[in-house]
Amino acid sequence: MSKAKLDGKFFFATGAVFFLLLGFLWNTKPYLRMGDFKALYYASQALVHHQDPYSEANLEQVYISTPENRGLSRTAHAVTMCVNLPTTVVLLTPIALLPWGVAHWLWAFLIAGSVIFAAYLMWNVSSSWSPRTSGALLFLLLSGSQALLEIGNAAAIVISLCVIGAWCLIRERYTSVGIVCLAFALVLKPQDAGFVWLYFLLAGGYHRRRALQTLAVVVALSLPSLVWIHQVSPHWPEELQANLVFTSAPGQVNNPTPVVVEPGIHGAMIVSLQTVTSVMVAEPRLYNLLAYLVCAPFILSWGITVIRTRPSVERDWLALAAIAPLSMLVCYHRQHDTRILLLTVPICAMLWAERGRAAKIALTVTSIAAMLSSNVILEFFGAITYHLRTSATGFGGELLNASLGRPVPIVLLAQSIALGFCLVRRTRPSDAPAYSSCSEPLEGFRGQETPAC
After folding, report:
1. What pTM does this model have?
2. How far is Cα 238 from Cα 236, in angstroms, rounded to an integer?
3. What is the mean pLDDT of residues 104-131?
């Protein structure tokens, strides 16, 4: 093994160790420990006991009646108010049948194993091109991901399944596993996996067939879940909508505006573009519309480029890298969702191996996005937001609040623009001549080195 590969593997392994140590030992806010998993666990327990999981009163009763929580007072809405889809609640029922002590450790190990394995697959893809670059990026992404283990959000599993599914489908290996992984990701959190699936649908040919097969698995998983939920909670759509509205109200955990109740908890931890547009416009309909108007041209350009260009492995990774940061800007996403940036590692390694201006820009914005979305660093920016909301006034104060207090959406937008530009410039129209073996730089990703020109 070359010195460069040894260095890259060391960076990757060090990032994995930091991820595990910080994730299991990080305890700055004990009440957040496995908080997101608790919300799922008790909602699934309520469903098992034929109680409405979308009723806060039911969830609170389930929560305080369990031995580990007996005697506790009213809990936070983040635990006793279910904002997850019925399919997510149903799929967690096997784990909800286990005692809390076993269930939360099993969930933690599932998160740890799936995230590290997904990161390893990205190392496997990109290390033959620029091992130090890929190792360094994976170090940044893994070492700043301790919140995944701290709060136990299902996004960790979903993103890992997306990465594993993309690896299988692009490399055309273990395609059945890839289809199932992507289908489970869509069922659990479509807002995280939707654009990855959409790429395969738009890509045409082999990829479209796999996307349609994935959709069939999604339907097969979803229908029984919806039937079960409807029997227990016939009005679940209205209840879920009411819960979402409540948790998105000013001062609540999912509200993107600068009005926060505690530093580091809200505000900067949300990475959708609404955290920036809400600084400029206070009305939810307006700041949502403004965010959509900013994102729509880039999404449309991305989709047209995917449809009109020739299939290639380079296009696959470029398109996924371009849409990964953009997918987090359209609607509500939090810091833990940014680990979908794992999909940007292969193309950054390939570009850096070729050098050039595009490589420098892509690697710079990707590195900044990985660093700024780190759990430790983002809490610092959350504290800045908390103080700026009262000290910074006027239009200048709003700009300062948006740029310093909400940096992640801004850098994600810059990253999607840079990688989208690479996608447009480097891919060929569908009626253009096929790439030769010397001009297909990512052909080696299928397991063979590219022949020298």
Report:
1. 0.87
2. 6
3. 93
